[in-house]
Amino acid sequence: MAGTSTLPESEIVLNDLILDDSNPRFAQLYTGKSQDDIINYLLDEEDARDLAKEILHSGTFRQDKKLWVLKQHNGKYLIKDGNRRCAAVKALQEPKKYGLPKSLPFSELPVIIYDNEALLNEHIQGEHTSASKRDWSRIAKALEIQRLANAKASKADMQNIDSDVAPLLRVANFYEKAVIIAKNKLKELLRNSGVKGRKLIVFERMFGVANECGYSFGGIKSNCALTVNDKKKFETYVKNIVNYLHNHPEITHINVDKKADQLKFLTLINPTPKNSSNSKSWTSAGASTSGATSGGNNSPQSSGSTPPITPTNKGSVKTKPKYRRKEIPPQVKKVMDELYELSSNKYYNSKAAMTRIALELALKFVVERTKYDGKHTMNKTPYFQNVFPPKSGQYTDASSLKEKFADIVKDSGIRKTLKNFDLDKPSQAIHNYHVGIGPLDATQWCNGIIDILEFILDDEVELLKNLDILRLQQPR
To answer: For residues 388-427, b (16+ Cβ closer than 10 Å) or e, as one string?
Structure first.
């Protein structure tokens, strides 16, 4: 690294390594204030927990994965590249505090030290091509593309992050304006995990009625700049949609896929007073969220004469999984078909309960029938030894099966979705009369496992390519 004063073989004391709360990968959705907050955020939101388990399993920190750090005036070192890896190691020093199985002591970590921040940023940009950023969250990609656009980077540089630049610029420009209004409540909705997270796509769908919400986007030549045409209407819209989505986490993009659904949703989150002569008028911010629902905690209904927003399965949205696996047993296929044929409006209890049954059957079938080495099935490996009962007639531990299978999935999106699907919710919906569910719950849970079922029931060769099969011989 000519032209810089670097110490490529340096080892820095762990306590002198400072996690960077301005890192573009996560800073815009991070809401804490301390190093502990950053560690917890990276563990839960950015797969650092999986990294910690990998480090724990290998018993070492890879020397070819040195942290890139910037020397500070106080003698500390700010991590500019490698925050997740460092957070994983720091968490392993206090495993009980961070919910990890055991500790793995580290006193120092290998680093490359920079004293020229501009050069460091240049090297980071060169290192992080689209291949290494493929598992970034969509909002992180959007903000990075916006940063490059503002720096007048080339289209090729922006396409290194994602080939479809314009939609991501609109995301970033909307976020920049909306986060000033809704702050941390908006950030929570845009995260990739949590009950209230994964709502970015809802906001994106609602770009279809931007004019009705007081704003508009420019063309690609203006980097899709967002113009607020009606400040009061825009602020009202942002506050109300954020509040509504916080109160109704069951809402997904399926509820607002078509423009007609988007307009209904606007009415739902901010209904017009009955005596109003202007059907497009907006009430004051926040007025709609207190009385817009009835009929239980999980089934949003409209107040007064406002029609409820209902799911739609038309357009490009998947309505059921497509299987490529050969020789799926008839009893498994029958359950899958029945699940996606049941009406959400008429049989939502049954449909909700069957999401668990379908997922369990798919997992059990694949693990019991897939020969990971051409000879032996996965269920006979040390890795799965505690999941399947030693005697016939005993029940498989479905929750443990789901967790273990998720841990060997390479794709971070599928892994997160599988881990976040709570098997107990469908059971509670049936066995606990205190838990109320409705058509939206059934639709959301059913649609939520489409990608998972497609992944699990993919062609056997393709499935194995996407699993970390080396772990199967390692007991856990």
So the answer is: beeeeeeebebeebbebbbbbbeebebbbbbbebebeebe
Tokens of 173: 């420009």
CATH of 10-127, one of 3.30.590.10, 3.90.1530.10, 3.40.1190.10, 3.40.50.10190: 3.90.1530.10
Q: How far apart are CA 354 and CA 397, in angstroms?
A: 17
User: What are the strands, taking DSSP E only, across 92-135?
Assistant: 108-114
- From the CB of residue 280, how many other CB atoms can be counted at a distance below 10 Å? 11
Mean pLDDT rounded to a whole number for the chain: 79
Query: What DSSP state is assigned to residue 146?
Result: H
187 touches 238 (CB < 8 A)? no
List the one residue out of 131, 4, 130, 129 whose CA is nearest residue 68.
Answer: 4
Chain segment 48-61, per-residue pLDDT in tens: 888 898 888 888 88
For 413-442, what is the mean pLDDT? 74
Residue extents of the structural domains in the chain: 10-127, 143-269, 330-473
Please provide the DSSP assignment of 209-228 as one string: GTGGGTEEE--GGGTT-EEE
- With a CB cutoff of 8 Å and minimum separation 6, the contacts of 333 are 323
Single out the residue of 203, 179, 197 nearest to residue 45, CA to CA: 197
Cβ contacts of 225 within 8 Å, gap of 6 or more: 173, 217, 218
Asked whether the whole model's pTM tops 0.85, one would answer no
Q: By the 8 A CB rule, do 352 and 437 touch?
A: yes
The Cα 90–Cα 16 span in angstroms is: 11
Classify 251 as helix, strand or coil. Answer: coil
187-190, long-range: CB within 8 Å, 24+ apart, which pairs? 187/28, 187/29, 187/30, 187/31, 188/31, 188/246, 189/242, 189/245, 189/246, 190/29, 190/139
> How is 21-35 classified by DSSP, letter by letter?
TT-TTTGGG----SH
Contacts of 352 (CB under 8 A, 6+ apart): 425, 426, 429, 430, 437, 441, 442, 445, 446
Banded model confidence at residue 428, pLDDT cuts 50, 70, 90: low
Strands (E), 276-347: none
Q: Which residues contact 93 (CB under 8 A, 6 or more apart)?
A: 14, 103, 105, 106
Concatenated DSSP letters for 157-207?
HHHHH-S-HHHHHHHHHHHHHHHHHHHHHHHHHHSSSSTT---HHHHHHGG
Contacts of 423 (CB under 8 A, 6+ apart): 356, 359, 360, 398, 399, 402
Across-strand partners of 70? 78, 114
